[in-house]
Design brief:
Length: about 170
């Protein structure tokens, strides 16, 4: 069950919904030539593991993507570039224990519109305070090519800060 605004929406998931949502996520991610997208095994809670490349080489920088979808278009609590959708993530303990950032991609298959939010958000409060914070908020932002670029930028900044912190500790 997914909650859109104040209304709970019971979704009967047809067999194709998950496959179609994953295909849309793959389409967004593979538009870039600096990402390698690996589909994870079905029994795992993560749908994709995304590796960031630099100049065509592996960097060791990764983030996860979990994909979910609904058939109908969310209509309530929408603003220009975001929508409030309560998606139950609390029961998924594995995602909160991962050592790298994780995003949720949500698709409305009525119009193929995508939204995203961080599940494990990379946060840099200071150079010495790097965190992955669980995001229980229901606000999702519109998924666009520019948003994917912003996600990549945030992930890179987080890894850059980790690298800086490691080098500083060695001194």
């Amino acid at each position: 069950m997914i909650q859109i605004g104040d209304k709970a929406v019971v979704t009967k998931e047809a067999w194709y919904i998950g496959q179609r949502a994953e295909s849309l996520a793959m389409m967004y991610l593979t538009r870039r030539n600096d990402l390698v997208v690996s589909r994870q095994q079905e029994e795992q809670d993560l749908d994709f593991l995304v590796t960031l490349l630099k100049d065509g080489s592996y960097t060791g920088r990764i983030f996860g993507v979990q994909v979910t979808a609904t058939v109908s278009t969310p209509k309530s609590n929408q603003s220009n570039d975001s929508v409030n959708i309560k998606i139950p993530l609390e029961q998924n303990k594995l995602l909160t224990e991962l050592p790298f950032p994780v995003c949720l991609f949500f698709f409305s298959l009525g119009n193929n519109q995508g939204y995203y939010k961080w599940i494990l958000e990379p946060v840099i409060e200071a150079q010495q305070n790097l965190q992955l914070l669980f995001n229980g908020k229901s606000e999702l932002k519109e998924l666009t090519d520019e948003a994917i670029g912003k996600i990549i930028s945030v992930v890179n900044s987080w890894y850059d800060s980790r690298k800086y912190l490691s080098l500083k500790e060695e001194d």
